[in-house]
Specification:
Elements (H helix, E strand, L loop, with lengths): L4 E9 L8 E2 L1 E6 L2 E7 L11 E13 L1 E6 L10 H4 L4 H17 L2 E6 L6 H10 L7 E4 L20 H15 L3 E5 L17 H13 L3 E6 L2 H10 L3 E4 L13 H9 L3 E3 L2 H17 L4 H26 L21 H9 L4 H7 L2 H6 L17 E4 L13 E6 L2 E2 L5
Parallel strand pairs: 1-5, 6-7, 7-8, 9-10, 10-11, 11-12
Antiparallel strand pairs: 1-2, 1-3, 3-4, 5-13, 13-14, 14-15
Helix pairs in contact: 2-3, 4-5, 5-6, 8-9, 8-10, 10-11
Amino acid sequence: MNHEHVLIKATRLIDGTGRKVLKEPAVLIKGSKIVSVDTKQSFSITDTSNINIIEYPGKTIMPGLIDCHVHLISLGDGRAGDDLNLLPDEILTLQAAKNAKMHLQSGVTTVRDCGAKNQTTFMLRKSAEMGITVTPKLLLTGRPIAIVGGHLSYFGSPATGPDECRAEVRKLVKEGADFIKVTATGGSTRTSFRHHASFTKEELTAITDEVHKFDKHVVAHCASSEGIENALDAKVDTIVHCMHIERDGTFKYNKELTKRIVDQGVYVNPTLHAIRHQVWHLENLKNTKGLSEKEDIDYQSLIDIYSSHTKLVSRMKDEGVTLVAGSDSAWLNYKMGEFPHELEAMNSIGLSEMEVIKSATLDSARSCQIDAQTGSIEKNKLADIIIIDGDPTKDISAMWKINEVFKDGEIVTGNK
């Protein structure tokens, strides 16, 4: 029998807004939308014949998680992006489908993909729309915009000068981009200069101006203070990594840049576990096979980088920056389906459990400009809901214990 409504009951509800936990909740769903959020005691309806009632005793109702920084085509097997790029587009699209499903099953109902090769993620979305594969909601940039030889330039959208930058934005919007990712500094790409600014301020401003004309948003990769300053001058919407590093690679906290981030309302995705997972990987190698001289140097360097970055991110948080949760998986060895690692890392630097949850739900939705549709459990929003076995407001590691996943009001857990 097909029911018109679904009523979900549990022991507690976290709505994603930061408000206190609601005890003995009852969430009524009709189709893809939330109709009401109440308590079991207050909820009343005379005719239950058209309601499918699902009870989750001892469990927590939460909004579906929003990972605002993924790379769906990556294998998570340690290979650099330069080598990933050598794989055929067809293989990368299949990998993206596998990764998307893994993330969905782990409770992530929306992903913002921050850069892929050619048409790969656009083809993934087309296959999802055709019912060929099951994915979270996909927010796509397609190809990130980079300078020639710059970070992620191998994915297919290098641009030089303001005119080319505007043209590249227009191409991506035409192809279906939901937002634009720009690499404002170098990164892991071998031909890039990691801690140097890439685009000029004029080029970056041309990109953001063009994107904002289409009422879309800009996400900027910034691995240095110089890149952060340029991104802020250009009025980007979200900064990822946001590393306070000088051109020579030394960490130096810039309080003025943090103040500008707060004043301009820019979101920061610090990608903490993206560094920590590399430390863990090399630590595991050290304990099993042993490290080469180069690997040992990298290991010690990454420990220092993680320590410095976490201290700086903690300061930014204390000074009012809104941190949003994004994993940067499946880059290098960071596999998809492991988003709770990022949540645990954010908790470890001083965010409360409730602050971490909000960073991965409503605040992440705001960074993605989709908070009117999802990100919290409220009337008229989409029924993107997860059921947790435990109470993550007391122990964030409960986020690993996914019991059920609803996307648009439909159970997708175990979907084949």
